[in-house]
């Protein structure tokens, strides 16, 4: 009888006990997770939007040209939106670890060697991105008075993609370091989708 009562006793829900033990940080973690989820979604939506506008602008320009009424500002607008789509798309790839990489040497190294190689990469990449962000803002403000062809927009909107992209890349690298540690910072999230060159 005592064996049966042990089976029918009060069972603790593992989710509830975990909630009590992590209640201090779970609200903060949820907020951070929600923030990054919204951030990622905004970047993805903007990338799709800018790429779609690029395609539509080229289509309108081609139709207008074939009808004998070319749209003078279409090439500049297509360039503007294409550059921003490329920068945002590159950030998405960096965030997911899906950028082009040659991993023959890294895959042959033990875990400690991969960490050292990743640290070396980051020592080269991070200062370069900081340089691009710093000088890129100077470039963008210097080009702000220059017009982007017939659009009437500022050419600085194109050059602003450089520092903004560099800052986005720095954020993505920081997130990957926080999430995966130094060993897998530059690794793809899913090796099954990786295709060799």
Automatic annotation (TrEMBL):
It is found in: Cell inner membrane. This is TRAP transporter small permease protein. Belongs to the TRAP transporter small permease family. It is a multi-pass membrane protein. Residues 55-179 form the Tripartite ATP-independent periplasmic transporters DctQ component domain. It comes from the Bacteria. Residues 1-26 are annotated as: Disordered. Pfam families: DctQ (PF04290). One of its GO terms (molecular function) is transmembrane transporter activity. The keyword Transmembrane applies. Residues 1-22 have a biased composition (Basic and acidic residues). Keywords: Cell inner membrane, Cell membrane, Membrane, Transmembrane, Transmembrane helix, Transport. GO terms for biological process: C4-dicarboxylate transport. Its main location: membrane. GO terms for cellular component: plasma membrane. Part of the tripartite ATP-independent periplasmic (TRAP) transport system. The keyword RNA-binding does not apply. It comes from Palleronia aestuarii.
């Amino acid at each position: 009888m005592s064996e049966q009562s042990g089976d029918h006793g009060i069972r603790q829900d593992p989710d509830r006990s975990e909630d009590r033990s992590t209640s201090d940080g779970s609200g903060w973690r949820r907020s951070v997770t929600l923030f990054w989820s919204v951030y990622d979604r905004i970047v993805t939506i903007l990338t799709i939007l800018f790429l779609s506008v690029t395609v539509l602008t080229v289509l309108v320009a081609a139709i207008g040209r074939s009808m004998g009424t070319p749209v003078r500002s279409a090439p500049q607008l297509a360039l503007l939106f294409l550059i921003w789509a490329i920068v945002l798309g590159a950030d998405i790839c960096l965030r997911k670890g899906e950028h082009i990489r040659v991993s023959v040497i890294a895959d042959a190294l033990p875990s400690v060697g991969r960490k050292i190689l990743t640290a070396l990469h980051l020592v080269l990449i991070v200062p370069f991105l900081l340089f691009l962000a710093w000088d890129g803002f100077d470039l963008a403000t210097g080009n702000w008075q220059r017009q982007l062809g017939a659009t009437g927009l500022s050419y600085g909107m194109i050059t602003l993609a450089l520092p903004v992209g560099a800052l986005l890349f720095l954020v993505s690298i920081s997130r990957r370091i926080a999430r995966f540690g130094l060993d897998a910072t530059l690794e793809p999230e899913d090796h099954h989708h990786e295709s060799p060159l």
